[in-house]
Amino acid sequence: MPRFSFELSKTESISWTFDRKPEIGEKIILGDRGVFRVTDTLPPLPGWPEIRYTVERLRDATAGDLEAMRALGVNRLPPA
Fold first, then answer.
1. Whole-angstrom Cα distance, residue 2 to residue 14?
2. pLDDT tens readout for residues 14-23
3. d(Cα 39, Cα 51) in Å, to the nearest integer?
4. What distance in Å separates the CA atoms of residue 6 and residue 4, rounded to the nearest whole number?
5. What pTM was computed for the model?
6. Backbone phi, then psi, for 66, in 5-degree steps?
7. Among residues 18, 25, 6, 30, which one has the least CA distance to residue 78?
8. 15-20: long-range pairs with CB below 8 Å, 24+
9. Which residue, 2, 4, 14, 43, has most beta carbons within 10 Å?
10. 50 burial type by CB count under 10 A (0-12 exposed, 13-18 middle, 19+ buried)
11. Cβ atoms of 16 and 4 closer than 8 Å
């Protein structure tokens, strides 16, 4: 599974693996860190294998969000 880097700011990012690339505008759950919207792609960093995206934090993850994520699989996104 590919590893992705989701950048919240210039100094904060979250690394996560998913079964597919997220789409721009898609809402994703990154565990207890919350629910985010993918806003753009970033160029790769030299020697860094992660695919990079910018995200905006929408809200805290609810118990229902976390249950749905676990039911699907923590490293799986819903079908596009």
1. 14
2. 999 999 999 9
3. 14
4. 6
5. 0.91
6. -65, -40
7. 18
8. 15/50, 16/75, 17/75, 18/75, 18/76, 18/77, 19/73, 19/75, 19/76, 19/77, 20/77, 20/80
9. 4
10. middle
11. yes
